[in-house]
Amino acid sequence: MFALVDGNNFYVSCERVFRPSLVGRPVIVLSNNDGCAIARSNEAKALGVRMGHPWFQCKDFERDHGLVALSANFALYGDMSERMMVVASSYAPRQEIYSIDESFLDFTGVPGDLVVMCRDMRARILQWVGIPCGVGIGPTKTLAKLANYISKTTERKPGSYPQKLGQVCHLGAISQDELHAVFAATDVGEVWGVGKRIGAQLREGGVSTVLDLVRLDASTVRRHFSVVLEKTVRELQGTQCIEVDDQPAPKQQIMVSRSFGHAVTKGRDLATAITEYTSRAAEKLRGQGSAAGAIVVFIRTSPFRKDDPQYSATVTVPLLRPTADSALLATSAIAGLRGIYKAGFKYAKAGVMLVDLQSTDMQQGELDFDALETPPGHDREVDQGVSGSALTCHQSGQRGRAKLMSAMDAVNGRYGRGSLKLAGAGLEIDRKGWAMKQERRTPQYTTCWGDIAVVRA
DNA sequence: TCTGGGGTCCTAGGACCC
DNA sequence: TCTGGGGTCCTAGGACCC
């Protein structure tokens, strides 16, 4: 059996831990630049705020309904996530951290009543971390995911499902008839793996509930749709097709991109931003022990500003050799930027992507042909005896850079991100024109000494 | 004025190989 | 009349997830 544990309205719940006055009120958390809603309390959902709802379109709720909107505080959410994951992990032999607020637990071989254990886990996470969770249990990950949805819906809209399926919902512990009733009452679009497109296609073919989907023949689904949806159907039927992955492989690509707080027109500002993003991407790269073979740079105007001239460009810059060196990567990125930048446009967003990633301990050795050139006055035959040193010399240079990078990471780890950075990433004053807008950010209560909460007697 | 930032997997089609 | 039969690798694009 598998369980999916996830924090309810996670970002909002994190904020409520430190501002209990927000409990019971409509609250949303906004994306970067305070652009749109990315988390909503149940009260905010009830008001009709959608996921991804642009803030400027729902601002009126602030005045009319007391909606509280906060800027995203990812330092806080990341830290709260870790705390929640640690508690959850103590309940099962294996855990897959699936996203910032969700983890799968694999209970294979664990004796005892899972519902009782999961209720205990839920209570402990609530008490120790302060985050309310929903737990779904099922014989496959897809069913656990569905169970989790049902547990939430039972809480949020009483009467949708039997009350016993609230908070902790175990789809493997109810009768076949009950299970089918649950399937029949659930829209096919709620299934993990069925998105907007596939959902519409299914409905067109008369498959509108989970029950309709479960009753399809899996191999027919493969022919009409894809192997992906076939797996989904089999998982709903109770056959495990998707494993719990508790040792995720290193990422195959690393992206850092941001929309700007204000439109950017100067190449110089774009260069500052690209340098900063590259630097951040390189930190992530080193964090997973990889080196990049190429860097992709992109810039674009805002597709929402239809009256402005539009421009969007991407360039891939191959690197001479794979590297995780921030400075080398930034130099290449800027070279790429020079190739695609055009003056006269209002840029809204830029980003970099590190690709062709490989492990640093698997790196190809190489001969440095420059060092192998026979210097004048030397006998080639004689010098060949020392040709191995060219390689050694080159590699020791690389090791020096690697040490520099780990020193940089250590300083930033201890004194905070950005304490030590590339000159090209600019000072605060250089970023004024385009830095991200975060007008409603709460303190970093758990990760910054200066922001720690004070209890008054 | 104002619209996020990441990722993964699969498939189809083209280039190229023998 | 009639023009093989496999393969692999790469890329772009689509679909999904949070």
Automatic annotation (TrEMBL):
Belongs to the DNA polymerase type-Y family. It comes from Roseateles oligotrophus. The keyword ATP-binding does not apply. Residues 2-195 form the UmuC domain. It holds the Pfam family DUF4113. SUPFAM superfamilies: DNA/RNA polymerases. InterPro entries: DNA/RNA_pol_sf (IPR043502), DNA_pol_Y-fam_little_finger (IPR017961), DNA_polymerase-Y (IPR050116), DUF4113 (IPR025188), Rev_trsase/Diguanyl_cyclase (IPR043128), UmuC (IPR001126). Keywords: DNA damage, DNA repair, SOS mutagenesis, SOS response. This is Y-family DNA polymerase. The keyword DNA repair applies.
